[in-house]
Write a structure and sequence with these properties.
about 350 residues; alpha/beta; 13 strands
Length: about 350
């Protein structure tokens, strides 16, 4: 997913017939997104594409999974994004002994009032940082399922609504690392996108030695927006127009993963919805009030790849979900959106 600094190319760029223009609104989205991106880049240098992906997920009202080897800045990215927004933030360190009640909350009996009092868990915040999520057991991981999908928590048959915006930014090490559990399919499907930071280029790493050697750059990071404005921007993104042809293209892409003989698990209908939401956010960041097929194609890997499971035959042949998805995208006809 590239940074929204230039318009997409390679496919028709003329706007389809759409409702009255919301150009001024998407300009606001792009402006605030640029402020967030620039703020995070003060901490994470040379990773503009990854930061743009995180901003897209935020504006699409989704959840972000950051997967990479230890020490490349996964938690730093999550913290920097959270600090760029003046909202409530809580961090949950996932460990093997973490309990589901530590995440959702627990009812405690109060001797003085002789009633049960609910004590909220770690998910009661606008932005929840789940650090090394795959070091906790699958039972504990499952405590996030309801809040990520429905933005609510049920404890002792009582349902508590979570305040919006609500975003889970989870980091995890590759499953080959010692002491990790694989994320269940249902858990992975609730993350709108998965990104990898990767190692920095030498110039960025040298700059990091100078800037991070004596102080923590997070200490000087100030918010550039707040939760109320993020809610407003999310509502603008939701109104970005998507033509019938582009909608059919999105469905065709996800349906092709379900019919591929190289995949034993294709993209779910939730994946299609996430792809559409992310495409609208990307369009708004490019100052467009309409979605192009380019938006969908640019988001295929981060939005779909982590949900797919390659067959044993494909794995033996050296084909992973990402490469299979790339082949599928090349086979699905791209609609002509020229009016």
């Amino acid at each position: 997913m590239e940074a929204p600094t230039s318009p997409p190319s390679g496919l028709p760029t003329s706007p389809p017939s759409s409702p009255p223009s919301t150009g001024a609104d998407v300009d606001t989205v792009a402006r605030v997104a640029g402020l967030i991106r620039s703020n995070v880049e003060k901490v994470i240098e040379g990773k503009g594409e990854v930061i743009s992906a995180a901003v897209v997920v935020l504006l699409a009202e989704g959840h972000l999974l950051i997967e990479d080897v230890p020490g490349v800045g996964k938690t730093m990215l999550a913290k920097a994004l959270a600090r760029s927004i003046d909202s409530t933030v809580r961090r949950v360190q996932f460990t093997p002994d973490l309990l589901p009640s530590d995440i959702t909350g627990v009812s405690v009996f109060d001797q003085s009032t002789r009633t049960f009092e609910f004590r909220p868990g770690g998910v009661f915040a606008n932005i929840v940082i789940g650090d090394e999520i795959n070091r906790a057991s699958p039972k504990t991981q499952s405590a996030l399922l309801e809040c990520m999908a429905e933005r609510q928590v049920t404890v002792d048959n009582v349902t508590y609504q979570l305040e919006t915006p609500f975003m889970v930014i989870a980091t995890q090490n590759p499953v080959e690392m010692e002491g990790t559990y694989p994320l269940p399919e249902a858990q992975r499907d609730r993350f709108l996108a998965r990104v990898s930071i990767g190692y920095p280029v030498p110039a960025a790493e040298i700059a990091m030695l100078s800037n991070h050697g004596t102080t923590n750059p997070l200490d000087d990071l100030e918010p550039v927006t707040n939760s109320a404005e993020i809610r407003k921007l999310c509502s603008i993104v939701a109104q970005v127009h998507m033509s019938d042809a582009v909608q059919r293209y999105a469905v065709a892409l996800t349906a092709a993963t379900r019919n591929s003989p190289e995949l034993i698990l294709g993209a779910s209908p939730r994946a299609t919805l996430h792809l559409v939401r992310a495409a609208k956010a990307r369009a708004a960041l490019h100052r467009r009030d309409y979605v192009l097929p380019d938006d969908l194609r640019a988001l295929l890997q981060p939005v779909l790849a982590h949900r797919l499971l390659a067959s044993a035959e494909a794995a033996v042949g050296g084909r992973d979900a990402a490469s299979i998805l790339q082949g599928i995208a090349a086979q699905v006809p791209v609609p002509d959106t020229t009016p």
